[in-house]
DNA sequence: GTGAAAGCGCTAACAG
DNA sequence: CTGTTAGCGCTTTCAC
């Protein structure tokens, strides 16, 4: 009675032939081993690709597994190997075209590398960001890609807890040791300002600046810095703060365009800001580009559908996601010391920006503008 | 020597105090237990919320855990409880606005229910769909939400393997036992046809029909069925097949609008089809809605940015995702016998559809139309 | 080549 | 209320 029975008197209710009406328990490695008449180690070798297994044995195992509908459990494997094979992705909003495209890139890369992706959206809330991070660590993901929204302090702690961390789209100045994949936003904005200046615009507004107290972002800095080289003088009143949310953006755009009828071009720092500019211009019966030129950062799908189609700075969102994932999974060996990866942007010129043919470079052709005239160029 | 040593002679190399210079191994439940001077079960109770723990003990455990930076491993927990706390989401394309919105809904619901979401995109490829499904099962997700693209046969097998499965956006006729969350596309299309008919249109084209051999979808059927009640007669030549991809959609739209200059309205079965219709109309110098009216299914962001803004059937994508997730996680008790959940659509009327004021209800006002005239109505 | 056995980190009985 | 113990499904030495 102290025998450990290698076959008779199974402890649980389900025995070889009598699985009558039982809840279909998922087959385990043991079931397969038994069915194939081999040890569980052999089954493991067959499925994990480790070690050598005789061809005949492999066949038997595979057959048995197929028969039982066996799927190795990532839970068991993960527990043993301390790697889940998954990566976490934290974006501000999966609904945002840029984030969506970036996500697609991550998925594409993860797929080729054989990993799965746990996605979540933080909606710009640091607390939520931390919470998601926490869950991801619990899941024991092999690495995390984040488009950080929250404050630096939150991520500082995270950087230590995280298995591996890569920032995308935005890097945190205080955390230079965290690898990052960025778009050359500064270059894009600079190109846009130069383009606009070349068209004759002198009063270019920037929609989407940081709040008065906060530190300005890369794009805003680039906007400011591009003025002197382009022969423009910066008007602080034209650098208008706006969060990248529909309501805030609309309010800011409306305020700007109503307050200053002398701006001839608006550079929107993001697609939501661009959307707002277009909507407000339409509301105010401003013709684009005859009355105002509009351009924006982020070349989303609607830019081409718009009338006129919008000039925009295209950022390689998908590539960014792909590269970030690659950095995380592929290059886990070497610590990338070479600073952030900077991917080039491209200025896509469409019809929303016009040359200033008017004799009043400082004002819009429409009614209320100031009366002082100048000659062409 | 047959004693199973409850404390002495640790088999592995790392013993209580000798962790000198070791790679920072993540703290486990044992570490916390030791640090807090309690048993591992107590630590487990504290973190899993199961059972009762004295307030003082809980504090000690929490303090020790915080000190060690302990995060319970979902791997260990999952292995033990046979539930990973995650759900899988399979969409055709995360980049598609509808899918993205649906995803957001799933994330929102998963969040409130405390689960994480593994997302992947199948890109309309049944093989890839099956592959993703496989990985998800390996991950032992608690359930799967899918916007099925592939053929029924693939999903038939899946339906058995899956822990729990819910379809979103599209149900498979051959698998009525799988719960589904759908939008009332038929109602939306019907409303659109009625609206167009009310405006005086007689020749309405449907862009996005199934390929000649394939079985028509819900929308196409609704389009056909709506004709008689609205006093229209269906012209088979106006039901034009097109896959929901940019190139295919554009080709189909161009073919239609060039071949038939007597269509006065185009009903696009999806936003990509709508986009194509708008682009082709612009290319052909057709004014909207003066020359052609355009409307589509799916009220995406650009519909409002378009000029004129596009009339569209809005589908509650986010709600659909939320409900699907709810169905999966919340209502796991009862088998929903009540057929698929049907969420209402809404016709959003904008400026892209005009009344036929012309004396030729059968033709566009522009040049090449046939000369036979009719009276109004 | 292959099998036996020892855990990975955790929860769920079951004793105290 | 708390500790001990037995696995969950898997990989991995280590013998054979």
Q: In the CATH hierarchy, what is the superfamily of the largest domain in chain A?
A: Response regulator
CATH topology of the largest domain in chain A: Rossmann fold
Unreliable residue runs of chain A: 1-22, 366-377
Adjacency order of strands in the biggest sheet of chain A: 2-1-3-4-5-11
How is this structure best summarized?
The structure is a homodimer of 377-residue chains. Chain A is an alpha/beta fold and 377 residues long. Chain A has helices at 29-36, 40-48, 55-68, 74-81, 97-112, 126-138, 152-161, 185-198, 218-227, 246-259, 271-283, 302-305, 317-329; strands at residues 86-91, 116-121, 143-146, 165-168, 180-183, 204-209, 239-241, 265-268, 293-297, 311-314, 341-343, 346-348.
Task: Sum up the structure in keywords.
Rossmann fold, homodimer, 6-stranded parallel sheet, 6-stranded mixed sheet, 434 Repressor (Amino-terminal Domain), alpha/beta, 14% strand, DNA-binding
């Amino acid at each position: 009675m102290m025998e450990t029975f290698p076959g008779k008197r199974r402890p649980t209710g389900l025995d070889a032939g009598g699985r009558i009406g039982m809840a279909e328990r998922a087959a385990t490695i043991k079931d397969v081993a038994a069915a194939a008449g081999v040890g569980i180690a052999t089954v493991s070798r067959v499925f994990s690709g480790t070690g050598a297994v005789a061809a005949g044995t492999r066949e038997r195992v595979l057959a048995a597994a197929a028969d039982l509908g066996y799927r190795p459990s990532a839970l068991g494997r993960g527990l043993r190997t301390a790697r889940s094979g998954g990566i976490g992705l934290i974006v501000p909003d999966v609904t945002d075209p840029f984030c969506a495209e970036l996500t697609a890139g991550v998925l594409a890369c993860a797929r080729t590398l054989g990993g799965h992706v746990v996605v979540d959206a933080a909606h710009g809330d640091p607390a939520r960001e931390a919470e998601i991070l926490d869950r991801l660590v619990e899941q024991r993901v092999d690495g995390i890609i984040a488009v950080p929204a929250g404050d630096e302090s939150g991520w500082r702690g995270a950087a230590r807890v995280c298995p591996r961390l890569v920032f995308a789209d935005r890097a945190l100045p205080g955390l230079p040791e965290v690898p990052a994949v960025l778009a050359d936003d500064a270059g894009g904005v600079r190109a846009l300002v130069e383009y606009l200046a070349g068209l004759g615009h002198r009063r270019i507004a920037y929609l989407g600046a940081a709040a008065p107290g906060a530190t300005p972002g890369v794009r805003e800095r680039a906007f400011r810095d591009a003025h002197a080289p382009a022969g423009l003088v910066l008007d602080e009143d034209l650098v208008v703060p706006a969060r990248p949310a529909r309501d805030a953006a609309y309010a800011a755009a409306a305020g700007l365009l109503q307050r200053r009828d002398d701006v001839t071009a608006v550079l929107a720092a993001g697609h939501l800001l661009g959307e707002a500019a277009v909507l407000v211009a339409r509301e105010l019966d401003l013709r684009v580009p005859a009355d105002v030129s509009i351009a924006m950062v982020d070349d989303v799908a609607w830019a081409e559908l718009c009338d006129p189609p919008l000039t925009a700075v295209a950022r390689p969102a998908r590539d960014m996601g792909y590269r970030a994932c690659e950095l995380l999974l592929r290059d886990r060996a070497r610590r990338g010391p070479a600073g952030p990866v900077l991917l080039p942007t491209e200025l896509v010129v469409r019809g929303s920006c016009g040359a200033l043919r008017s004799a009043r470079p400082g004002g819009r052709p429409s009614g209320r503008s100031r009366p002082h005239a100048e000659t062409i160029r």
